[in-house]
Design brief:
The complex is a heterodimer. By secondary structure, chain A is α/β, with parallel strands linked by helices. Helices cover 26% and strands 22% of the residues of chain A. Chain A has 4 helices and 7 strands. Chain B is α/β, with parallel strands linked by helices. Chain B: Residues 447-575 form the RAE1/2 domain.
């Protein structure tokens, strides 16, 4: 989950995972990732959503953040043209550092504030089409299209192919046991 | 961009190498307000890992390394009468003697570009000739090494930069700058045409030719470490990763083999009990001897009578007194203890052997782990932890000077590149940021490094996914043993069909002079001639990089001129295999900054801090016990657990 500071990344996760919206959410502190399982067809998709932990603020997101992500949600604020502009930078960065087959979804957040909109939906749609991304306008506040956003991603994630690569036997170091899941940043 | 950077912190950390990142994480975790900056555009400083194009840009940066930084607002205006400044360096001087050699055929017809790369990373083949001209005078072995280097190159040497004119099938041409044959300005370029550049390189059988353009195209598959280290599975870094729960940000692979190089041959060293018993190279008697000796080493402290009287001699001498065949002595000395033949004492050797044995079996058959995507992930993991607890991150952000109060002699602020003054109580600065004035009394040692891309493993086995460590002993007095780490593509550090080989030793000369002899022992240059001869037993070199890195470890803080007591120095990477030095350093500095605080305790459950909402779903509570796994790693449906996957 990436995008400019203040576009509502954490609020989107919060709405999605906990169906909760906090008006005074402070810039993300203390959360590293959240999870939620969503049924998709006859599979269950477990979303492990990584928040940026504020590293995006001065454009210093660690590439480690993108490792092994199956999907990326790039968020902009429909009331801020700037945030849409930076979104394009994020897409570039993702193409450079992210996995190749990453599913991209663009979320124009704060669509409840469409009366002070600065980014026309048409622009977003055109751009999304040009990069092959899903696009929706969301409102974490009013729970609009949040579920749909993640379901859309779910549908796009290619079926798992156990034979595709030989990267078996990786070791997780820690106290807990390993659990297989797929990440989404 | 950084206009809204707060102007007050508790701790400012300059440099994102491993020790600095650990301190940043620890301070942030203890509630300190941390600003963490790096003047570079990437995390890790000299601990970083790069994609292939990233590495080429890194090389270029040092090549062009000049003081052409944009004029920053004068810091002088920001300093009061009662203050003075410690000016920081604007130029990184830790990397020297960069030399690049390309042996893979360079298909220049195409405008090769890494897929998905941005223009700035565009790696053109012409950017591959670099060396520092300044060191040419002091290279006595130059001619010799050069001629040996190019010995496989066919006689029809044409200096052709236009591949269209090259005769068909002439894969390897040495394009050497003629008059520079004896200087160090060399680049052995192999150009080619009509090389089949199949689209789907991943599927190609290994016999296929790998071209330079493929390496560039698949450049993102590479994560090339500047420092080559491994984690001892019971070392301080693993313990810290586990304790702090930062381990969940990273994944590791076990080193699969310990190798030795003896009498021109690479052999696998049996080190675990199972290995020893399964070994075909050892006789029954040797097996028993080795087991007995290793068992003793495990608890050598309890049997001082066994080594009493031998403390003064070297470990290699001591081994000769034990009931061990020369074969076994060699294994123990070079591959298990990995100590120097000439200088290590019996106790050093026993200690190292015990440490090795102690780490065996925790995660696998060897005592070492390697982080997926390279060593450069580790500083980033700590930085993430710091950020999660509110640390502020600013790359591409340089600091012009530290501001010192004349009366108290304490450092009170920094002035950054924008002329902004940021105050703090503690300042952690990585060695390379200090100016020459600050470091004028210091004699730095150097580390010699080589990075090689090869087409197959130094020791072929059934599996092509082996991760190996090999120690090549010092060849003559005054030189140092060379540590070789060979990584396969499943470590996510190189493209399929290639191996990434790191060589490291303490420098006695330039990196190429130190390491090239070992490179020649283990590898052959990649040429057409050999492709035709199926009889090649040595892996072939596709690409090689040599450089020297400053070793700023173990330098007394007092050696730096005029530092305030609240300015703490972190060293760059050391030459050792493990990371204990970085952890020790970080912990010691952290204790000075926060004397009574726990060092990187595990974070609380996220639900305690994320939200005070009441609608927590059970799913959300799981976050803390979750370990993210690479989605490509586990290609199975998400609710299946730990499946057994077919290994390649």
């Amino acid at each position: 989950l990436i995008g400019d500071t203040g576009v509502g990344k954490s609020s989107i996760v919060c709405r999605f995972v906990q169906d909760h919206f906090d008006h005074n959410i402070s810039p993300t502190i203390g959360a590293s990732f959240m999870t939620k399982t969503v049924p998709c067809g006859n599979e269950l998709h477990k979303f492990l959503i990584w928040d940026t932990a504020g590293q995006e603020r001065f454009h210093s997101l660690a590439p480690m953040y993108y490792r092994g992500s199956a999907a990326a949600v790039i968020v902009y604020d429909i009331t801020k043209q700037d945030s849409f502009h930076t979104l394009k930078k994020w897409v570039k960065e993702l193409k450079e550092h992210g996995p190749e087959n990453i599913v991209m979804a663009i979320a124009g957040n704060k669509c409840d504030l469409s009366d002070i909109r600065e980014v026309p939906l048409k622009d977003a749609k055109e751009y999304a089409e040009s990069i092959g991304a899903i696009v929706v306008e969301t409102s974490a506040k009013n729970a609009i299209n949040i579920e749909e956003l993640f379901q859309g991603i779910s549908r796009q994630i290619p079926p798992l192919d156990p034979h595709e690569n030989g990267n078996s036997g990786t070791i997780k170091v820690g106290k807990q046991t390993t659990q297989a899941s797929r990440r989404c940043c | 961009m950084a206009n809204d950077l707060p102007s007050e912190f508790d701790v400012i950390v300059i440099g994102t190498g491993l020790p600095e990142s650990i301190i940043a994480a620890a301070c942030s975790r203890s509630g300190q307000r941390v600003l963490h900056v790096d003047s570079r555009s990437y995390y890790g400083g000299n601990w970083a890992s790069f994609s292939f194009s990233g590495l080429l840009s890194w090389i270029k940066e040092y090549e062009e390394s000049t003081d052409t930084l944009n004029e920053s607002p004068a810091w002088q205006e920001r300093i009061l009468e009662s203050e003075e400044a410690i000016v920081l360096s604007r130029k990184d001087r830790t990397i020297q003697h960069i030399e690049v050699f390309c042996y893979a055929s360079q298909d220049m017809c195409e405008d090769v570009e890494e897929t998905g790369a941005l223009k700035k990373n565009h790696a053109s083949v012409t950017s591959v000739n670099y060396t520092e001209a300044s060191d040419s005078a002091c290279l006595p072995t130059e001619d010799e090494s050069l001629s040996t280097l190019s010995f496989e190159i066919p006689a029809e040497q044409t200096t052709s930069s236009n591949p269209e004119s090259a005769p068909e099938g002439n894969y390897a041409e040495a394009t050497e700058e003629k008059e520079n044959h004896c200087s160090d300005k060399t680049c052995v370029q192999a150009t080619s045409e009509n090389v089949p550049t199949a689209e789907n390189t991943g599927e190609q059988p290994r016999e296929n030719i790998i071209t330079y353009s493929q390496i560039v195209k698949e450049g993102r598959r590479f994560n090339i470490d500047l420092v080559s280290k491994l984690l001892y599975s019971r070392g301080l870094l693993i313990d810290l990763l586990i304790k702090s729960n930062i381990s969940r940000y990273a994944e590791f692979k076990n080193i699969t083999r310990i190798l030795s190089f003896r009498e021109g041959r690479v052999e696998q060293v049996p080190c675990s009990r199972a290995d020893v018993f399964n070994s075909k190279q050892l006789t029954m008697v040797e097996k028993r001897m080795l087991m007995k000796f290793l068992t003793f080493c495990m608890e050598y402290e309890e049997h001082p009578e066994e080594y009493k009287g031998f403390e003064e001699i070297t470990f290699s001498e001591y081994l000769k007194t034990q009931k061990l065949t020369p074969n076994l002595q060699y294994f123990v000395l070079h591959s298990i203890a990995m100590t120097s033949e000439a200088t290590s004492t019996t106790l050093d050797g026993l200690k190292a052997t015990k440490n090795f044995l102690h780490c065996l079996g925790r995660y696998g058959n060897t005592p070492f782990l390697f982080p997926l995507y390279g060593q450069g992930e580790l500083p980033q993991c700590f930085c993430r932890m710091c950020a999660v607890f509110g640390g502020i991150y600013c790359l591409r952000h340089s600091v012009q000077c530290l501001v010192v109060d004349k009366d108290s002699r304490k450092c009170k602020a920094i002035v950054d590149q924008f002329g902004q003054r940021i105050i703090a109580n503690h300042f952690i600065v990585e060695d390379s940021y200090f100016s020459e004035d600050t470091c004028s009394n210091i004699q730095y040692r150097q580390i010699s490094r080589a990075v090689l891309i090869t087409d197959r493993s130094v020791l072929k086995t059934d599996s092509d996914q082996q991760i190996s460590i090999l120690t090549v002993p010092e060849s003559e007095p005054g030189t140092f043993a060379v540590r070789v780490i060979e990584l396969c593509s499943s470590t996510m550090t190189c493209m399929k069909g290639t191996y990434l080989v790191h060589m490291t030793c303490t420098s006695s000369k330039t990196a190429r002079e130190d390491l090239e002899p070992v490179v020649q022992k283990l590898f052959a240059p990649y040429t057409k001639k050999e492709i035709e001869n199926e009889e090649v037993d040595k892996p072939r070199l596709l690409w090689a990089l040599y450089f020297n890195m400053r070793d700023s470890s173990n330098i007394s803080r007092n050696s730096y001129n005029g530092l305030s007591s609240n300015v703490y120095v972190c060293s760059g990477p050391d030459c050792h295999l493990g990371n204990d030095n970085a952890v020790k350093q970080a912990e010691a500095l952290f204790q000075q900054i926060c004397p009574s605080e726990d060092f990187c305790p595990p974070p609380p459950n996220p639900e305690d801090i994320v939200l005070d909402g009441d609608s927590l779903q059970p799913e959300a509570l799981e976050s803390d016990s979750m370990l993210h796994t690479n989605s490509e790693t586990h290609k199975e449906s998400p609710y299946l657990r730990s499946p057994v996957e077919p290994s390649e």
